[in-house]
Amino acid sequence: MRPRIFLSLFLIVTACAPKPDPNIQIQVAVMSTLAAIPTSTSQPIPTPYPSPTPFDLKGLFCEYQFCIGHPLDMAFYDVSAQQNPASPSTYSQGLLAAFNGNLFIQMIWQLAPGAGDPQFLLDLILEDGLDTRVGNLDVKLIRDMNVVHIPITATASPLLPNGAAAAWTCGDRVFAWKVYSPQADNTQALFDMALERFQCNR
Questions:
Q1: Closest by alpha carbon to 109, among 95, 99, 120?
Q2: Residue 171 falls within a domain, yes or no?
Q3: What phi and psi, each to the nearest 5 degrees, are found at residue 104?
Q4: CATH code, domain carrying 109
Q5: What is the pLDDT, as a whole number, of residue 12?
Q6: 185 lies in which domain range?
Q7: Among residues 131, 113, 114, which one has the least CA distance to residue 122?
Q8: What does pTM read for this prediction?
Q9: The pairing of beta strand 138-142 with beta strand 162-170
Q10: Which residues in the chain show pLDDT less than 50?
């Protein structure tokens, strides 16, 4: 008997309870549905890739914040480091050389802020008693660089009696270059090839 009384009371109480607003129930259902929708994954940020090198690295020496061309079958080495490992070439000064059976190339550089005339370094790279100037000094302005060039003869090796030497300014440094060759007619082309690919940090 008592369960029937409780059931009757429950039905009376629930019948008298206020009915929920159907608009609120719809709004709650819509908000629950929207909250359950998964969000789309954002697109990944594109990864930048390095651009291709605009020039061929074969026959190009790049170090000490400058680059210079050289024949493909040769490579520069740091003479300063060979002579004294504790004192290699640096940005401010250095000495490089490259050789094979038919050519010898030497290059030096040093700091010279404000120097407009590179001839003092040309005088330094030419060896007294070994190198003799031939003809007149050729002076040019090439890509904003003051360049001096002169043919030479050399007695350093009987196999390499001809040559050329040059010097130029770039930024706060002066560079000098020298070649020994069996033929006199290829030295200008060798220098042109070296300087054509020359760049330095200014």
A1: 95
A2: yes
A3: -135, 125
A4: 3.40.1000
A5: 58
A6: 60-200
A7: 131
A8: 0.71
A9: unpaired
A10: none
